[in-house]
Amino acid sequence: MLKTPNPLPASAIGPEFLKQPLAPDTRDTSACQVDLSLGQTAAVETISIAFSDACRGQHIFFNSRGGFDDESLIADLLSQGLSAEHQLASRDWVYVPRANNPYCPRLLSLPPASAEVFCQEINQYYQALQSDAQGPSFESILAAYGDTENLRGYLAELALADTDVDMSPAVLVSHSQVNEFPLIHCYRLDERRLFGEIRYETQAGTVITNQQLLQPGLLHLANGGVLVIKAEHLIERPDIWGRLKAVILTGMLDWLPLEGQHVATAFNPEPVPLDIRLILIGDRQCLAELELQDPEFTEFFSLICDIRSVFQVDSSADHLKYRLYIKQLAKARGLLPLSDSALDSVLLWSSRQCEDNKRLLLTSRELGNLMAQACHYCHAEKSLQLDKKHIEKAIAASKKRLSLVADEHMYGIESGQVKLQLTGKQIGQINGLTVIDAAGEQFGEPARITASVHIGDGDVIDIERKADMAGNIHAKSTMILSAVVHSLFSRDTPLPLSCSLVFEQSYYHVDGDSAGLAELLALLSSFSHLPIDQSFAVTGAIDQFGQVMAVGGINEKIEGFWHVAKRMAPEQNVCVILPKANANELNLSEETIEAITNDKLKLYPVDTVEEAIALTMARPAGELDEFGDYGDESVFGRIQRRVDSIHSHEKPSIWSMLNPWK
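and the corresponding structure tokens:
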């Protein structure tokens, strides 16, 4: 006789670990620092590798599913992964004309945040040469800005230049601070924006240009630092990748001549040497498409790293780090501070999004949007701090905005248009649990699953599949179900019964394997002529050995069933059978937890089909004895007797009648 599993205790429902408040000595987070790169240790290490001398020329592809504030995330990754030396590697760039050839200006590399002062000193130096006035000396300029060949040549030419020639320098890139690290994000990708351009002017009908008309591109601005590009934008512009690849190979950024303009004299500035790291952000599909466009792509973007969207919580220290992360995120977005109760609510919501009580969401945009919406309700109350009620109002409002489809489904059930049974017993019928995803709206809803048995050759007919209303995963689940039945009842002789399964009144595409357990119970009920208690709803996948496996959307399924049950049968106590593997994912609403606490709703986690049979049919499934018998009182025993009875009443075949002595 199998033991009926005990219901999951109400105290264990939901993220118990997250609901426990921190001890007073760990609530004070003022002395702790957590940045927005929490959980991204691999990404931080990737940044460090990319900027090492040994890996120069290797660039980064961050595989991200989205949901992050890329600017803040990359900035924090760089602050964690870069040494102080690398963060001071930026330079200012200035173009200066040559006295003998002003159409081939020189390029000067200057210390950061010095270009503007340099131009002023050059003007003073040039004026002093023309009027013998006091000004900066040749040696002082070299000492201040670096004794380079180009700078020496330029200063020497200033002394000999014709006064009619404009010898003034032109700033290409200038940093406002000495320790400014160039971090540039490219939001619109085109050739001029990325590589810069030579602009022109028309004077007396002639097109002219000079160093003053050079327009830097994002590559110029990011020189010495990082340029971040969306991978999808690069896919859309394969022509840009060709030129960018050449720039990466040579380490030099040339200026392309003007197209469609007849310039009086060819203008050819010196190319800019690049010391830059490129970061592409996309998903694995983007990476595959870029490799398809250019098989050599990963030779340049060889540092491929995942951006993690969840944070594993294994200790109270991890719990504290995440609370600090949320606080830092709110501060970075200029939101109101969060109370401890508000933090608890955010953590509960975050855990639910991950469908795991030991994992928490890291996607800063989703978290930030939730807290920003909560601030709306906080401001309405003229409060200076986000509390639990504000977070809960924001969550409830989000659900309400997307409740149309759920409301229509509920109306169909309440009005009797959709038939469900939550009381009494029924043969071959069970309440399965489904999750409906309608354009961003996700909600749980029970579905009536029925099984009809007839004499046949052991086939399990999936009506949804036959009607092209089910996907491949559901078809696989049905075949596994068939394998379980045959392993139980047709090891030595053919199974003389066939069965058809269907989701009644289902008018949308069905996929997934989470109905496997419910379908098997309905089938066994129909085979054995034993009724199923209709107060049960069931979810769970199965394998060929009858073990129950985890499913997705467990919280939505349970809450959806309780939402229906409390309206259709308010006096009835109802139950949910779920995989034991899903018990750690339970993160239910307070209303649902209250129903469990009051025994209006019971949850039964199971590991095997036999446990579910004992619950729904109020008798043991059955176990083979040494004689190959399941036992008369068991569910399997009744099916075994029915199969044996059919075999014993089979009509003789034509061949046996022609061969009576066989």
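(Above: one complete record from the training split.) Confidence is low (pLDDT under 50) at residues 1-27, 654-662.
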